[in-house]
Every structure is written in C-alpha cells, then in structure tokens.
Amino acid sequence: MLIFLFSASYKYIIKPLFFLFDPEKVHNFTTSFGEQIGKFKLLTGILAFFFGKKSPALKQKINGINFDSPLGLAAGFDYEAKTLNVLHSLGFGFQTVGTITHLDYKGNTKPRLGRLPLSKSLMVNKGFKNKGVHWTSEKLNHINPIIPFGISIGKTNIKSIDTQKDAIKDILSAFKIFEEEKIKNSYYELNISCPNLHGSVSFYPTKNLDELLTAIDRLNIKKPIYIKMPINESNQAVKKMLDVIMKHKISGVIFGNLQKDRNNSAIVKEELKWQKGNFSGLPTQRRSDELIALAYKHCGKKLIIIGCGGTFSAEDAYHKIKLGASLVQLITGLIYEGPLLVAKINKELPKLLKRDGFKNISEAIGSGIKN
After folding, report:
1. Residue 47 has pLDDT above 90, yes or no
2. Are strands 60-62 and 304-308 parallel, antiparallel or unpaired?
3. How far apart are CA 270 and CA 277, in angstroms?
4. For position 47, which CATH number holds?
5. How many independent structural domains does the chain possess?
6. What percent of the chain has pLDDT over 90?
7. Which structural domain, as residue segments, surrounds residue 15?
8. Considering the domain boundaries, does residue 371 fall inside one?
9. pLDDT higher than threshold 90 for residue 210
10. Average pLDDT of every residue of the chain
11. DSSP of 22-84
12. Is 369 part of any domain?
C-alpha cells in the first residue's frame, strides 16, 4: 500500500513538477539529493525497512557475486558516484557507476537530455560526460559498497583520440588505474556502444573488437567484465561479435544501448525536436528483447546476459529474464514511473515466479525460449 501511495504521489504531483524544468538540471538535483540522503544511515535504514525488502526467491550468485535482486541501475545515470549509499534502500540489487573515461569530459553541446513523454523515452546526448578516472577512483576509494556495484569504462570522448591504437591505449589506462587503486567494485562494464561520441573509431568490426579484447585480456583482471552492446546492428553482425567475445576473458554482455533509429515505431514523431542525440526507454525495448533471446540461443551459458532497455514494470523485467537475461538494468523507467519502481518490481516478481512454478528466479532464465 505504501509503495502504491508514494508511486501515485510521484505520478500525479512530483513528476509533473519535475517536467516543468530542464531535464539535466532535474537529473543533477536528483543525484545530489540522493547523495545527501545516503549520508544518513538512520534515514536510509528507514527507507530500506519500507522499500528495500527482497524475497529470497530473487537471490542469485552470478560470477561469484551475490545479488539480492536482479534489478540494477544502468550506466549513464550516476557518472559521479553519488548514489552508492542510497540505492539499496530503494530495493536495487546492484548499480553501475559511469561511464567513466581515462580523461575527464564536460559533455557534448547542450541539450544533452530531452523528454519524449508520449514515447516513454529520453533523448540522450551526454557523450560520456564524467570527471575522469583519477577523480572517480579517489571518490570510490572512500566508499564501502552496500550492494554490488560496477564501473563502466569507455573511450575518452575527445577528437585527438581518433585511431584504433589510441582508443585502446586510452581504455586500458582507465582499467589500469582502477585496478591499481583497488576499488571495491564487483565488476566492470566495457561500453563500446555509445552512439554519441566524436570520431569514427568503432569496435563493432570483429577485427577491431578482437584487438581490443586481446589487449584487455593481457591485464589479467580477475573481476567479471560485461560488454555494453549496440542494438542497431544486424543479427548476423551481433552473432559475429558474440563469437569474438566468447574467445576472450569476458563474463557477459548487456543488451543494450540507445536506439539510433529515428523511425522506430515507438517514437512519436511529433516529439522529435532535436537534431542530435539518441533514445532510451520504450524505443529500445523490442530490439533489446530480440537480442537477449538471440544471445541466449547463440551462446547458451557461456555468457551472462544482462537486459537493459524499456523496463517499466515487473512484467517487462520478467519478460527479459524469460528470454535469457540473468539481470536487468534500468534508468528511464525510474523517470516515468518513479524511484519506487524497483521496490514495486521486487514485490511483484515473486508472484510471477510462483505463477509459473519457479522457486527461484534463476529457474526462469531462458524459460521462455528453451523450446
């Protein structure tokens, strides 16, 4: 009942108020507000008592990491490590910081965020806006995580890094610094699929991808690495990428990143008012689900699959799990449904599992396509 009341308050009072203001300013306010709440253990404890409870049916151990919930915050929301001490109290099972790059980047030209309410989407054009690996590692050094967190790493978005060789060197530098600082992250994400970067360096061609992953292999990183994948490549191209990935020390893949296709059927054309940027939320949902299923069929249990894109309900999350996702990440659903969306999904998922005869969520993974 409490979740319902707070969710209704967000939908009818808080969200309409937020939507009167610039989305990037609202985003900055939200992350800063979350950081302040996280400083008070009593307050986060009260929130966790009401909204952070999770059924034992949702617990999994994946790549040696204990997840109390399959729901996590995707990269792209918290690139200054502000919410690490508060998200557990809202029911999250894990979160990703970043994307972080070797050098800092102030972000692409504004506007960097836009809302498409009818499309249940956000226009995103940040281009790996972050304060760089040195600043981030210093901050993360003082954090004892309550839930597993990962660090998303990508290529620094500056024009001078314009060759494959330079891009690989730049990415390796970020990995090396985080490893040397012995940050308490549980995993890494390698973001090769951001569509808002300068230059023409691409890791989609299998030769380029193989070269990058070979270089990362040599770092001998013990923590799991998951690759953030594109959703606009063809099935055949994705399969070729997966074949390369399975040859390396990579634990899994994330499907996927932003929607580049402005003719996507989920986008209401009247809402398109930006020349640049790509789209999150509902426009990514169908292709994300297709690629989760494709990867599960193609790779089996060789790679962990994390679903990302268009999760607005327990049914959406469960659908990705039944298609082969072990974990599910989200951001846009929080903007449209409210910060208690994860608590609501945590409450409803066990009912869906019970309905289908599963005792644990791990039993449901891939159950929708095995036959």
Report:
1. no
2. unpaired
3. 16
4. 3.20.20.70
5. 1
6. 80
7. 2-364
8. no
9. yes
10. 93
11. -HHHHHHHHHHHHHHHTT-HHHHHHHHHHH----GGG-EEETTEEESSSEEEPTTS-SS--ST
12. no
